[in-house]
Description:
Elements: H1 3-13, H2 21-30, H3 36-48, E1 52-53, E2 56-57, H4 59-72
Antiparallel strand pairs: 1-2
Helix pairs in contact: 1-4
Amino acid sequence: xxxxxxxxxxxxxxxxxxxxxxxxxxxxxxxxxxxxxxxxxxxxxxxxxxxxxxxxxxxxxxxxxxxxxxxxxxx
Length: 75
């Protein structure tokens, strides 16, 4: 899993209750993390790998996102 995937999982973990996956992808595109097209491909791959289901994190996705959060925290 590369850094962009980890950022996407972390953004989904931290999203507001009224935000959808599309909103997260647009936010990350505006931040120039990746293009919307690339973000959709990444989300599709994460869904196929069992990290996402119906735009929400699965247990596997939540564990990976929390791991990414710990990895990105400064000591």
